[in-house]
Amino acid sequence: xxxxxxxRKNDLVKQAAKLGQSASFRRQEGLxxxxxxxxxxxxxxxxxxxxxVFYTARAREKYAPYLERIxxxxxxxxxxxxxxxxxxxxxxxxxxxxxxxxMEAERELSxxxxxxxxALERIQDPGNLGAALxxxxxxxxxxxLLAGECCDLYSPxxxxxxxxxxxxxxxxxxxxxxxxxxxxxxxGFFSCAAVPDPAALPVTEADFSRPCLMAVGNExxxxxxxxxxxxxxxxxxxxQGRAESLNAASSAAILMWExxxxxxxxxxx
Amino acid sequence: xxxxxxxRKNDLVKQAAKLGQSASFRRQEGLxxxxxxxxxxxxxxxxxxxxxVFYTARAREKYAPYLERIxxxxxxxxxxxxxxxxxxxxxxxxxxxxxxxxMEAERELSxxxxxxxxALERIQDPGNLGAALxxxxxxxxxxxLLAGECCDLYSPxxxxxxxxxxxxxxxxxxxxxxxxxxxxxxxGFFSCAAVPDPAALPVTEADFSRPCLMAVGNExxxxxxxxxxxxxxxxxxxxQGRAESLNAASSAAILMWExxxxxxxxxxx
Lengths: 269, 269
Description:
The structure is a homodimer. With about 270 residues, chain A is α/β, with parallel strands linked by helices. Helices cover about 40% and strands about 20% of the residues of chain A. Chain A has twelve helices and twelve strands. The termini of chain A are far apart. The interface between A and B is large, with 43 and 43 residues.
């Protein structure tokens, strides 16, 4: 039987709300807050064991199949009132399902699978990061490497935009990408720097028969110069219009698509 | 010499703020508010004549080259105080440059250029709409058709995410897409419905040698069934992971890329 929480001032509620809001508090506690029936069920299924689950009476009826998957893994379960759900929610119309999950331990870079990989450098927009993770998973990219100061992987916006990819796709972290690249090149990776430079190699002409790390840079400034210089190749998406560049997530989508493209052994003339 | 406005209660300021906030007010007035030095300069360059320009003293110094382009086309010019700029701004750190622009008259669907085109049906997220427009322009897609109730093309978020593509790319509107498709097919278009269905034709195998309308649906529900049924072909992006679908803007990016792909005459086996 779930305990009922109706006060927004309850300590567990205050902690959960703060986990939704503060990246530094998430790091300190090693916990994050997931919201939404589907996302919480994805978290439970993928083994990001929900330490603590909160749901409203309305959600218990409406999202019963999801809650079953979630509660099978939960350690502590609380029913919450609608005002408490509103406090915890990031969205205007909350589904009333939340769980606290434990962050995974940071992966050793030496364990990065030797297969096509996306690297994002200093990505700032949570929507872009989440969408890129979602696309990476859908296209079968094996892992994602976050380099430098990116927005927080565990922010509610990233979790939502990723549609649960955060729970399934191995995400690695590194400080400066050039140093990481040196080690990855020794392991057999080659690397592509995505640059908005018409003189760079069109991505359609790159040879992806070896494991590739595709590096995409910050929304405003692209990749750091040192990073582009440290990559094996500079590749570009040929553009025809007056726009000078693409949105980071759209650009990453096209680059990953080319890297993973079915029938890619057919070489272009 | 620009008139100075320091009161947030000034009628022109109140009107501009309301234009930033309300789609129905924008439609009623036939005006919209653009924000940012680069975006306002793009608007001026593309002939969306800024009827009225507002800038702060700080912006006049910092963005002089942009303001020159803007003021060359402006009908009325006002210097505003920082608090007024904050009121008008959609972002946390405003550049302090705004202009009111006149909406273009709605284009006749019969004038849709007979060339590759993107159709978006009931797209709800301004970030997705703006990113799709930006990608369409960058890849050389000739026009975009917005079908059904989409988010407002002239909302500040769409304008910003489009990076000015709104001012350069011809955007058309229609009600129900199936009816519009009937007329477009008669004119020589064929159409592709993008569906997350592994049984549909992989987009890599579609023949884009004739003018194609690529139809992408709503974020949550995809294309309406009637729309998918009215299209010539159902195409899909082959997926390998556990994700069932892509973000609408990422999906549109990959589909447009394939439609416009350089060297596409090389047919896949």
